[in-house]
Amino acid sequence: VQLVESGGGLVQPGGSLRLSCAASGFTFSRYSMSWYRQAPGKERELVASISSAGGSTHYADSVKGRFTISRDNAKNTTYLQMNSLKSEDTAVYYCYALASWGQGTQVTVSS
């Protein structure tokens, strides 16, 4: 299993970013995918998850209405669209599947 995140960066409050997670080494379309994040000094927390076919999603209360998780099974990729970003969204964001983690991508929300 290999998960490679991309798309992080520095953005101003109220801005948007789209994270991508390219997956390989397993049959992507058969498994749910998740995004987690870990802020400095805090535990890693679940941000969003999506079922194998994409028909079911789950979000942490803190991101509902602002973040959208999606997937493209033809491209073996899952996405996290993040809108209306806040300073408290600053964290390293990780892709997760099959008990495996990506390397993470840093998201910094600051003016």
Short account of what is shown:
This protein has strands at 2-6, 9-11, 17-24, 33-38, 45-50, 57-59, 67-72, 77-82, 91-97, 100-101, 105-109.
Give your account of this protein's structure.
It is a single chain. The protein has 111 residues and is an all-beta fold. The chain has no helices and eleven strands. The strands form two sheets. Strands 2, 4, 5, 6, 9, 10 and 11 form a seven-stranded mixed beta sheet that branches. Strands 1-3-8-7 form a four-stranded antiparallel beta sheet, with no helix packed on it. The model has no long low-confidence stretch (mean pLDDT 97).
How much strand content do the residues show?
over 45%
Please state the CA-atom Rg, rounded to the nearest Å: 13 Å
Shape: globular
Described by strand count, sense and barrel closure, the largest sheet is:
7 strands, mixed
* Low-confidence residue ranges: none
Please tally the β strands and state the result: 11
- Helix content bin: under 10%
Structural class, by secondary structure, is mainly beta
Q: What's the end-to-end separation, in Å?
A: 37 Å
Number of helices: 0
Oligomer: single chain
Overall pLDDT level: 97
Q: What letter string, H or E per element, gives the SSE order? A: EEEEEEEEEEE
Keywords:
four-stranded antiparallel β-sheet, single chain, mainly beta, 51% strand, 111 residues
